[in-house]
Amino acid sequence: MSAWTSRTVTQVLGVAGLALACQGIAAATPDLGELWRLVQEQQRTIESLQARLERTEAQLASAEEKAAMTEEKIAAVDDKAEAAAAALEDGGATAAGWAARTTLGGYGELHYNNLDTGKQVDFHRFVLYVGHQFNDRIRLFSEVEIEHALIEQDEPGAVELEQAWLEFDLTPHHHLRAGLDVLPIGIINQTHEPNTFFGVERNRVENVIIPSTWWEAGLGLNGELAAGWKYDLVLHSGLDTPASGGDAFRIRSGRNSVAEAEANDAAVTGRLRYTAIAGVELGVSAQYQQDVNQSQSGLDIAATLVEAHLDLRRGMFGLRALGARWDLDDGPAGLGPAANGRDEQLGYYIEPALYFRAPVGLPGELGVFARYSYVDDRAGMDAGTQVEEVFAGINYWPHPDVVFKFDVQSQLDAAADGFNLGLGYAF
Known about the structure:
CATH architecture of the largest domain: Beta Barrel
Shape: elongated
CATH topology of the largest domain: Porin
Distance between the termini: 142 Å
Number of strands: 16
């Protein structure tokens, strides 16, 4: 009985242990509902991770796209910059580039003359400059002038093209110039803006003997031979003076303004200037004319001009001095320059000046000057053809490019005494 009981007890205990184990296993193992919940949570976790991965990939793709677009924009900007540089170098231009390389300028002057010979007011000159830089080595300069304000029949006004030249840089110090150009002679022929000289009117020497403003069509070289030594050499069209009458062989009357002008005989002009000292210019120029009548009269009159000048401004002291002389062939007896007294034509002037600061309350600078000049455009005659003048006056520059002028004049042994008022500007 006890043995059975022992075996039975053992069996019972085994069954009980197995039941307890199965109960523990059953308790640790989720049911289907729990498994479904676990699967759903895992699915949600997977979906969340997938969404994060997709967002990360999208952000990366966007960044790469933006980077690519930036690179494209940078490349496009570089291409445009290279194209603009190439266009500038080749002389092409956009509208903005054209405007940036084009310059405008000009000058004007109004005169009032109160002389023994009469009183007159005249807007003498209105001038416009247009320049253009094609590239670093090629440039254009032009000048159009309206004289005496009114251009109608029987009126004194005129429209003139005084300059229209192209300049090419051969080297940094030597240049080739071709076209319509003002000749390099004297002080004011090339630099004649009203704010650059004393007196309302241009001086008589650089108006009659050197007939400013004197321009011709030509081809020339200019530049610097050494430090402070500047040169000009021009082959150009020549004078065409009358061969008879009161202006026969008069140099000023020979200018033809390059307007369907006779061009049978050329001329050549050379100039050398020393400018190494600040505020000082020493210059000499010479010109040779093959025939001042352009072979039309058959007289074949050659002519030579020699000119020298000093232009000085040191501190408050200024001085200008110039002399010029023409020598023409005599020509046939009774017909040529000698018969008219114009085988010799000459003139000179000296002009000291003092510069001061404007009085308190006024901007700018004042300048006072005196000038003596002598001109004889028929020096081959014995007497009676000289003109001697004395001028004195004042210039007031409220701005370096704006000037008001007053001067008094006296012609020795003549009746052209009086005073002059003027204003001028340049830009």
